[in-house]
DNA sequence: TCAAAAGTGTTGCCGATACACCCATGT
DNA sequence: ACATGGGTGTATCGGCAACACTTTTGA
């Protein structure tokens, strides 16, 4: 908190970006993330998380967004701080503390993503051999995603405004890596009160048209609980 | 991650220290924390979290420990990263990013704490008017403590090696601020498998001598679950 | 008419709560 | 003896997993 000038220490902000895409072989939805190829030492040529130095006039989250816009063209809505990594030896020849964010992008945002020359997407569970300690960071972010989806309605962040409960269930299944019972899933989600029906239905399927829902974070479960107990 | 030199930006590490002490009026156990009086601008004279600039050759957690040892004489065992605070305007006249840790100290550690001239302890729920954004940080740390104690066996970190279940329950009650049913609490804790009986009993009480337990993080619940399902 | 997924109903199990009750010690 | 907290037993309630069953569409 004091004004000591720090010479060799630099502060970077990086982001773990998660999107859902079909797996190349199985076709099943899985978690993917974009990586950036390093074009200088250290770790020249290796893949790394998108990131960059923190600017003087930027908040931490703003820095993460700026880097994402520059490297991948993404402007995601959900963005959350993950952890600060600052081991002395994590970057050869320099002291770099990285404050890492993680983010979820929707299919429409994902579609707008313009992969630059040195940007490529990978299945999140397969990534390894990244620059710096980024293997550990990706692992940590994946754990957080899988933990948080079980107690927080973040799955909506993977979907567009209107969605069916089957689509929402696909998100959970992709993230958790296992099938869920459609009947029980429906009841769980509706009991939370985090979605509300739009009244519209999805047509064109070869079966009964599913109802469309929107996420309802303006009237979360807590409010309902207060009303119920009152 | 690049080597750009950063001039005006400095990185500090601060820590929210939690200990349990009896409340002055009610006598009931509550959460306390030590604060340090600032002796320079900005916020000269106000109370602030213990902290200091990050040294080049120190890991983040090591920096937190060093500051604690210097200001309060504490060497706590439980130490966890809380959050990185880096809003542009959080420190007048300078850009400071603070990586904040939180820690729990045991009564014996607490007893060793030598309060310096400018160090004073306060009930955690009462603190306000701190320097910088430290009010927000303390609030955030308290929320984390109260959330985490419900799903993680961190309460042990408030106790010495041997303790009774009643003492452990007092910790929960102090943190959560409400009474717990002794019978059900006992079953919950034992079902977790995070404590094991030492075989010894606490004597000198005016009632039946309670059994003493130690924390058992070497054989956590997960191991038992695997054995059960095998 | 059939396949396929949407959506509803029902049952059984498990964990948590509430609370009655017995146990062992100091005074 | 009795007060006090330690410790055990048990009934009840609610949530969740499993799964049978009905509904509605396109082909």
Structure overview:
The structure is a homodimer of 230-residue chains. By secondary structure, chain A is an alpha+beta fold. Chain A has 2 domains: 9-148, Nucleoside Triphosphate Pyrophosphohydrolase; 154-229, Arc Repressor Mutant, subunit A (Orthogonal Bundle). Helices cover 29% and strands 27% of the residues of chain A. The first copy, chain A, is built from 6 helices and 9 strands. In chain A, strands 1, 2, 3, 4, 5, 6 and 7 form a 7-stranded mixed sheet that branches. Chain A has a two-stranded antiparallel sheet with strand order 8-9. In chain A, strand 1 (9-22) and strand 2 (29-37) form a beta hairpin. Chain A is elongated. Residues 1-6 and 219-230 of chain A have low confidence and may be disordered. Chain A binds chain B through residues 1-12, 14, 40, 48, 51-54, 56-60, 81, 83-84, 86-88, 91, 94-99, 131-132, and chain B through 1-12, 14, 40, 48, 51-54, 56-60, 81, 83-84, 86-88, 91, 94-99, 132. Chain A binds a DNA duplex (27 and 27 nucleotides) through helix 5.
Describe, in short, the structure shown:
Chains A, B: Residues 158-214 form the NrtR DNA-binding winged helix domain. The structure is a homodimer of 230-residue chains. With 230 residues, chain A is of the alpha+beta class.
Please state the oligomeric state of the protein chains shown.
homodimer
* Secondary structure: helix percent of chain A: 25-40%
Q: Give the CA-based shape of chain A.
A: elongated
Q: What fraction of residues of chain A sit in β-strands?
A: 25-35%
Rounded to an integer in angstroms, the radius of gyration calculated over CA atoms of chain A is 20 Å
Q: Provide the succession of SSEs of chain A.
A: EEEEHEEHEHHHEEH
How many E-type strands of chain A?
9
